[in-house]
Amino acid sequence: MFKKVKGFRDIFGDDIRYWHLIEDSFKKLFPTFGYEEIKLPILEKTELFVRGIGDTTDIVEKEMFTFKDRDGSYLSLRPEGTASVVRAFIENKLYEPPAIRKYYYYGPMFRRERPQKGRFRQFYQIGIEAFGSESPLLDAEIIFLLYKFLNDFDLKDFLRMEINSIGCPECRPKYRDKLIQYFKNNYEDLCEDCKRRLEKNPLRILDCKVESCKVIVKDAPIILDNLCDVCDNHFRKLKSYLNQFGVEYNVNPYIVRGLDYYVRTAFEMVTDKLGASSAVGAGGRYDGLIKELGGPDIPGIGFAIGVDRLVELIKMKNELKKDEVDIYIITFEEFTEVGINISNELRDAGFKVNLGYDLGSIKSEMKKANRLNSRYVLIIGEDEISSGKFTLKDMNSGEQFKINRDEIIKFLQEN
Ligand code: ATP
Ligand code: MG
């Protein structure tokens, strides 16, 4: 017997309704903010992620599914979407003519992490990216979009929006030096990962989940006290716009986001309901990335939502109604054509119809109809054909009655 690969999973049955709810929702909402869909490859050259995410990030250091292709080049299953959107933006010259460009994507991502609650090796993200403006108004609108999208699932008491500014190439290096100095003074008490991070990516220590590191981090200098005037101004305006949008948020100076190319705004929508997997959606501004990947110097900002985690939260909050079949049609062999015709008419009118394929006794057919959650069963037999009146059974009340063929649709529409 074949088994799934570790950390991968099948999604089916009751769960699918939650996925559809989410899929229907972003397809409606995102275009109202000016976003259009972009469909991207699942496989990219490894180098794209090394450059686009950064070789000191956990994702690139240890989480990618990478293999050598027949020609000797290295390919990776995409661990996230931003690098691919930026590649597509540059490769297809989507920056011409200049304008604000807004894209959303949806699909599976792959990371070789330790599987646990809310953490899988194949998971799904919905993401957006907007190119062409440095304005904090765009940052605020994007944060509002994430906030609104998630809260529209009635999750307000499960989620908090946390924001931060992580500075820019002007002010961050000075802050970084201060931070390195501070952590050097506490070197012995850092975890092994953080010792390694110290020179390469000290900001990541701020985000470490190990208790002993958290204690040290508590007294570390924070970036918000070390922003240059431009960043400080940007962050101040961002907060004011967020208030105007009606977003409730906390400022959290420990949100850093891994990437080198992130500047200024960083944000996360977090929950306490999923154990260590706390971020449901996260994003930030990455003004240097497009240039870094060989494109023009155009600013960008975006976020990604973890759909698997969002499904879990919605399930905790609301149980969605089970899928139903509107009508199950039992037809005796010689009247199959009548059954087919009626099923066609009903489906054209938008009803969910199941035909009984392997006719046994009426009793066994009723059982099958029940297992499919059928609201009604329609019986087409000798009596029905000769009288022109069909037998309809209401599966909830158990009531059974006769109805004219041309009244079936009207009846279902009204009941
Ligand atoms: P975490 O801190 O939980 O590892 P991350 O910072 O690696 O998250 P991002 O790269 O920002 O996550 O991805 C955006 C979103 O994708 C996350 O907020 C989360 O909801 C989801 N996500 C990331 N990794 C996984 C995973 N392995 N399984 C399920 N969802 C994930
Ligand atoms: Mg991660």
TrEMBL record:
GO terms for cellular component: cytoplasm. This is Histidine--tRNA ligase. Gene3D superfamilies: Anticodon-binding domain, Bira Bifunctional Protein, Domain 2. NCBIfam families: hisS. It comes from Deferribacter desulfuricans (strain DSM 14783 / JCM 11476 / NBRC 101012 / SSM1). It comes from the Bacteria. PROSITE patterns: AA_TRNA_LIGASE_II. Keywords: Aminoacyl-tRNA synthetase, ATP-binding, Cytoplasm, Ligase, Nucleotide-binding, Protein biosynthesis. Its EC number is 6.1.1.21.
